[in-house]
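Lab notebook: predicted structure, single chain.

Context: the supervisor wants predicted structures on file for every construct in the current expression panel, including those that have not yet been purified. This is the next one on the list. No modifications to the sequence; it matches the entry in the shared construct table.
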Amino acid sequence: MALTGSTRYDSATRQLTKAVARTGAGARSAVGSVAVVAALFGAVPPVSLAWLAPMLLVHLAWTLLYVRVFWRADLLPYWLVAGDVAITVGLCLAQVHLVPTEALVTGSSWVHGLVTMTVVMAGVTWRPIVAIPAGLVLAAAFAAGVRLASPTHDVYGSLGIHLVQLLAIVLLMTLLRRSAASADAFLRQSVRADISLMVERLRREDELRQVGSIHETSLHTLTMVGLGTYDEPSPTLRDQVATDLAALEKLRDQPHAGSVPIALDALLDQVAGRATGLDVHRRLTPETVPGEVAERFARAVTEALANVALHAGVREAELVSSRRDGEIVVEVADAGRGFDQHRLPPDRFGVRGSILDTMRTLPNGGARISSGDRGTRVSLWWRP
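Prediction complete. Output recorded below exactly as produced.
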């Protein structure tokens, strides 16, 4: 699996949320538009135009916001759904002025359809801890509004329908979120394994170069002795043999594989080359770091490039590595649309987990993200 799997694992939950949100926004826009038309055609006594006109205008304005979300394929803002719940609750309680009595009795009220759609949108956008109370408030407000408009009308049937709808959407979204979270975890591990394999390959190449160098040096010394170049003890031969033995002992006593040095610039160059949908301009300073450090840098850079491809709205990025004040610094920058990292939803694991936490849990390591109208810059560093 290529490193572009990082793009997938960060987006499994997010892309699911976006797809459901876009579908919901489209459905809410359609239902809201139909409700406006139905309300206008059903504006017969005892419907009060003084009540109907302003409330329909507010409702229509909120429907247009949903249309905007649909066309831009954005996530549903929490405030948008919260406002929708508040508006729908207001419409429910004012049914005595908005809906003909006949429509209430027959269950064909245009407000009834809005309540169903708002319950669905609450379940799509919020976790059960928020969606369930919101749904209960909507169901209760509708029942109260019907009872105010028609005291003798039975409200338990509609109340039961709304509760079933609420339960169904909450269960569906819970299952979808859990499935996406499982996919996230699997793909995260796959990406980490892929980076580890890349690091291990570079590490092995470096070890082979070391072995080859030592082999050639020791072989050369033994060849000189075998050819009789040195007929008697020589300080030069003694120094060379001591150097060769020290090199061999160093190779024998080399620490565990995780601390074997890796060419960071070569690893980052491969990471950049595997970024999908991006032209990555590279300025990499040759540096050698322990394998664990190289792997942390690679994971963070992979995630940063994946975020550029997914969210920045540009097709170019810059990857720079350098040494500043004794620190090895790696930066990923783009000129796309920025974001506020403090307002990221909880499902955005990539920025927190794969970038900030990855580097901050590394001894002497750290990370910082700056983002605004001129783009985003991810700065990673480690002090040897």
